[in-house]
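Anyone have tokens for Translation initiation factor eIF-3b like protein? Sequence:
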Amino acid sequence: MGLLNKKSIKIENVQAFEWSPTENVISYWKPEPDVGNIPACVTLMKLPHREIVRTKNLFNVVNAQLAWQSAGNIFLHNLEVFRKKEKDVRVDVIELNATEKITGVFWEPNGDRFALIGFEGTAKINSHFYERNAAPPAGKKNYPTISAILGGARFLKTLDRKGINQVVWSPKGRIAVLAGVRAFQGDIEFWDLTMLAAGNHYTCTDLEWDPTGRPRPPTPLTGGKQKTVKKNFKEINWLKESDLHNEILGIDGTSDSRTQEIEEYVDEIIEEIEEVVLNNDDGVND
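Reply: yep, here.
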């Protein structure tokens, strides 16, 4: 082992740095100096040539956290998303409640979603879920991106969970465990935007996924069909409930269970004739 280019990288007052998980790129931040009107900043530097890829100035910042996505495409700092794979490393800002203190950022492995845990006051704890918006189509100039309109990430859901201080994503993504570990009471909840299961392990200190991301059979669906299922999950789930309803009631599921065929017979009087019959025996008319 030897020092890169036989000299250190001198960054005055650097507070923290993080390596990209997939490339020779580091991110670091340094605060505003005590004197002079110089802002704090976050910087991406490419090694070994020490090339500055992107710098973002920050004002009135006391602290910042750096959080890379597992694929190295995106990282968060102080709730600003750096799109490293896009031209000029575009930065999107995520607006949150000013009274909320964010204590953790948790990326979905190799995915576009992330979770934030925030404290409001001393009692309320929120788990916020966001999804990174799609990049503009290649070759489109002056294209109004979704991120520019909505503020960088699409909000999915907020969960008010008092006993939660950690989000642990499955290595396969999609499913996340919300847990209250160490100083908390050991609550554990499995979520896929809807709760799948819940439990409690009192005095739990750590939580780890199986490296395979939970045993599950290979899916017969292509990547495109999987996205379609996720997009239309509520409608598909309703159809499953409808099929179960049909099975219980003995209704043919191949037809629309909301309709029923009824055969109706109608007797109609077309003509009515009153006839007088003469009784020849006694001469009395009937």
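The chain has a mean pLDDT of 77.
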